[in-house]
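Work package 3, deliverable 3.1, input record:
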Amino acid sequence: MPSDLVHLYMRIDHLPQIWCPGCGNGVIMHDVAVAIDELIHDEENSINREDIVIVSGIGCSSRAAGYLDFNSIHTTHGRAIAFASGIKMANPKLHVIVLTGDGDCSAIGGNHLIHAARRNLGLTVICFNNDIYGMTGGQYSPTTPNGDRATTAPYGNVDRPFDIANLATGAGASFSARGDVYHARETIDIIKQAIRHKGFSLVDVYSICPTYYGRKNKKGDAVEMLNWQKENLIPTARYYSMSEEDRVGKKIIGILSFNDYPEYTEEYAKIIASCRKARKK
Amino acid sequence: MAKTVLMQGNEAAVEGALAAGMRFFAGYPITPSTEIAEACALRLPQEGGKFIQMEDELASIAAVLGASAAGMKAMTATSGPGFSLMQENIGYGAMAEIPCVIIDVQRAGPSTGLPTSPSQGDYMQAKWGTHGDHPVIALSPATVLECYTLIVRAFNLAEKYRTPVIFLMDEIVGHMREGIELPDPNRLIINHRKMSFHDGANKQCYYVPEGKYVPAMKPFGQGERYNITGLAHDESGFPVNSSEIAGKLITRLLDKVEKNVDDITRVEEYAMDDAETAVVCFGGTTRAVMDAVLAARADGKKVGMFRPITVWPFPEKQLLARLPQLKRILMVEHNHGQMLLEVQRTVGGTLPVDFLGRVDGTVISPSDILAKLNETEGQSHAE
């Protein structure tokens, strides 16, 4: 029996989803739905369901837009953030949430990612980061670790990987965070804060792909991959209480950068107001 | 009497677009279209609209489609290299039925080519640039005033048929300055997309009633939750793998233009009543052709001008109607022979079709055209 959450926020007619057994994407989609549900039911400052627009590109992650029962637009490969920029500019009251993947947002769409971050345009980008191109069958992506195997890296990956959250920070994102599949509750809270954040926000959520990345790299099944996340991805508070020595090989889960830079559409609204004032004179 | 203003074609296109209700522009600087972005940056906020300079042309067309999905009349402007980059999402706009206007101020190509020189080398690209079978409407203005009036029509057709419309300018028209009297914006006919899904009982977002071709389109954020995709989809807007539904969808998309060709195509005919030779041209070559026609007429030759204003779909019906009186056609265009192929296809070998073109980035002069008209038919064919 589907849960209430599924009935409320999923398009039941279009389920079951296409993801492989053990894929982490369903958990991230769940986290997004829970985060939105909690914001809609926030008694002090609720958001309106009709104001949410889900924008996705192409790839495994991007199918999530079709399953979530909101305004949704499944765009072209790499361009989700650019489509989302036009939607947000046209109607700044909308909560525009981009669901994308590591290839979609940091390879073919990398230019849009860094420039949306730089402008501080009020979008929320959730990257389903599984270190691989899953939809096309397991080619290396910009986040595939150096030396790992993929169908296009049969001798090991020569590339060095992006850290997408740090990339966004470097590009000027006013909110950049990292989540993962194992730490669902922490990730839901991060996504909620990202949606609430007025400027550009990015959450790089580490997914798991046992079928392509896991199998090629002998990472075990989904449970083993989740256990790896449990041991090696550490929520902020605990991370900072650890010794330097213990932190080696671990990655932090939480908000990595936060600023209150002016938001783009608000700044543009000021230009419109001043132009109109000048005209009336 | 209306005030006469000195204006460039690029600027007139912006003023016309504003009059048509365009309130969102996303673009990237590129010669010879840049003045359009500059004028939009200046003028849009004055009208309550929005301008954004994107990181590239891929982003520009995507932002335009996004803004249109959220309810704004939106456009972008570019030239050849940028037009090439936009092609994938022009197809997305056709498939997802998102209205918008894309201005291509053509320059000499291929590749970086001659950025400041005139050309009409993107004519075929306007039709065939994006992959797959898709509907295309492209309009081409010949004067500064027409940059204004015709772009209003471009927006009207985009809204009416829910499809991207290509506004195919060229360097000559874009950078030409002339004194024009702008029409009273209150007297223009302005179309808007049909926004309600409530056409009887069926409220599916891509539902089209029997005998109609275009679904209604409600902006995101106005109380209807629906899905837009570039995948083949059914009336509910969701992807399907059914060849029957996909075939029906693509046929309807093509029919939007093919079944409404009389509504969409417009031509200008000049001195054609008794003409035995028609000079076919469009956009920036028009002035030189008119000059040549006048000179030929002064010399007693029965020459007229036939100018497609709607360049896609090619106005074959209008040209066919002229064939019985014609002995010869001369196609004049700034390329290696692109609209020529459409003229030849329409004429079907019943008349000699001569060609005058240029690919060196210089303009075709009236004397070039006169010289070509004075050649005997046999000579020009042997070329």
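Residues 4-280 of chain A form a domain with the Rossmann fold fold (CATH 3.40.50.970).
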